[in-house]
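Input/output pair, single chain:
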Amino acid sequence: MEEIQRGDSGAAQLRMEIVEGIPVLPHSDQVKPLARGFVSAGAVPPNVALDAYHIAFAAIHQMDYLLTWNQKHLDNFDLRLRIEDIIRSQGWTPAKVVTPERLLEEPT
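Output:
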């Protein structure tokens, strides 16, 4: 929620309206160590540590998908393999990271 409120106030308001009614995942004490593990392992660059939290929240809350347009860090094949290994080593199942376009193409 904090992230979508940043930047241009008009665009931020539009983003807030778009997500209105979508449940917000509750904080879990397990998210922070997992997210920090991605950064310390070099799977997520420190300057985009917030991305690590998105991935960790999705894993901890057992989300099937993590929807993103961020193909530099979140939907990056090489980084994804490292991230998924870390998630599995902690006993969690990684969410499938997809762009909106790919999600719409997923077979049902």
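DSSP finds five helices and two strands in the chain. Helices lie at 9-19, 31-40, 49-60, 77-89, 100-105.
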